[in-house]
Amino acid sequence: MLPADVELVPIATSGDEGRAAGAPGDKSRFVKEIEDALLRKEIDVAVHSAKDVPSALPPGLRIVGVPERADPRDALCGAGALEELPEGAVVGTSSLRRRAQLLARRPDLRVEDLRGNVDTRLRRLSEGRYDALVLAAAGLARLGRRDGVPIAAEDVVPAGGQGCLALEGRMGDERAAELGSAITHAPSVERLMAERALVAALDASCRTPLAAHAEHSDGELVLSAFVGLPDGSVWIRDALTGPASDPGALGRAVAERLLAAGADDVLREAERI
Questions:
Q1: Residue 56 needs a FRET pair 20 to 30 A away by CA distance; which of 62, 113, 129, 161 works?
Q2: What residues pair up with 167 in beta bridges, in sequence order?
Q3: What pLDDT, in 10s, does the model give residues 49-78?
């Protein structure tokens, strides 16, 4: 329960409006209006889905808290596993990252665009317009939905920040920093910072199929990444282990390895498609 002196201020963003209308757009549209309210001091803390927060924050703002991460994996709705889908099955997703990985793994699938809120998407599945959908497991859980079977992260690498909330505050606002710190989960911060460092180093946009997923293993951090073309015809995967104490360095190291393998060419080609 929220403290008595905390007020929730709902803010609709241009990204929300565009999603409802079925229009794609860059991820900053999901945070811009909220950040503007923060800079105008109309609110003290902004709460975002971390995967919607661009790598470069506006001057004067910073991430002040990251609660414990929910399940970062994608979930398959309509089938028990990707391998169970028949040849030519129609799979719905609005994500280029998911599209690229699905087709890299199963080039026989028909991956078709899917927009609207979760209820709308699941209704279209029940109507038989799709054989399966791929949605975020955390999003389904937060809505209390039991639909979907999580897909192993090694099969479909999640988006950087998926399953995380990011609390954003103003530089110099120590009260906001204290509130954010009080609910911050250190291991989740480490994972998120590694993923954000990778995305930033590749200078990727929401129009590029890029995945980044960090997890702890034996006291260290393992960062896995995927870049590819939307049709699944070309892709690069890599993973590297590093100290959890320096997640930014690990993210940059994986980015350098991907670039050495040709990721820049793949990402630029993906943006032109």
A1: 113
A2: 47, 65
A3: 999 999 999 999 999 999 999 999 999 999
